[in-house]
Inverse folding.
């Protein structure tokens, strides 16, 4: 049940399967987000299966001034900028490399520009969320009501600030997130364009892009995501509040 992050990533990559549906669907793993005390934030998406046809990797970067850039290994129209690019800069890069040093340590590089190491770990909170993910039926992960109820619970259990598993992206489409396995980022370092991002730690104010909130403590996941063009008739109401 509690496979290591490398085992989960390897298994998903060897058998990339999408959830059923007619919306835009992705399966993969990555860093939901890792904040740094100096104001930076990094995220990783390694989507090994895509209903748009092109697997991709992206790195999300927030600088200390709050400006976001999404680095993408493929055309932005078929990766994360499709949903978030209206509020970020977007840069196409030749490659984003992910290398597992052992079951709990992963390196992410963009040529000579980015060198990012994450040390991962399991905690009672992440084990609880992983158990919940495994026990939740596939249909429930597509329910706005279920995801709306799970969001504040996840935020309370993981103590990573506000978490929303469904909502609206800055570009308009709605999202539904299914983190089936979760681990904590317990250590590491990162250097981008020669600048050391410093120590990990929560931002002074939690960052978000649309309704998608970036965690205040580093989280790594394996799971799925869905995106659907929202209309007034189908958009679910926002939660009144999220637990922190």
């Amino acid at each position: 049940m509690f496979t290591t992050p490398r085992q989960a990533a390897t298994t998903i990559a060897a058998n990339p399967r999408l959830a059923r549906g007619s919306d835009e669907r992705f399966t993969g793993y990555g860093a939901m987000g890792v904040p740094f005390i100096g104001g930076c934030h990094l995220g990783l998406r390694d989507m090994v299966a895509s209903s748009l046809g092109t697997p991709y990797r992206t790195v999300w970067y927030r600088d200390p001034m709050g400006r976001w850039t999404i680095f993408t290994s493929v055309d932005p129209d078929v990766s994360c900028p499709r949903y978030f690019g209206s509020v970020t800069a977007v840069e196409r890069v030749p490659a984003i490399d992910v290398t597992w040093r052992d079951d709990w340590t992963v390196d992410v590089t963009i040529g000579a520009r980015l060198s990012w190491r994450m040390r991962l770990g399991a905690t009672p909170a992440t084990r609880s969320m992983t158990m919940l993910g495994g026990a939740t039926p596939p249909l429930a992960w597509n329910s706005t009501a279920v995801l709306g109820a799970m969001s504040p619970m996840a935020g309370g259990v993981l103590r990573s600030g506000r978490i929303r598993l469904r909502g609206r992206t800055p570009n308009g489409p709605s999202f539904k997130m299914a983190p089936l396995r979760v681990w904590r980022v317990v250590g590491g370092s990162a250097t981008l364009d020669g600048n050391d991002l410093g120590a990990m730690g929560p931002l002074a104010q939690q960052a978000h892009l649309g309704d998608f909130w970036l965690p205040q403590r580093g989280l790594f996941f394996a799971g799925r995501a869905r995106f659907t063009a929202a209309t007034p008739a189908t958009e679910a109401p926002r939660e009144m509040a999220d637990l922190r």
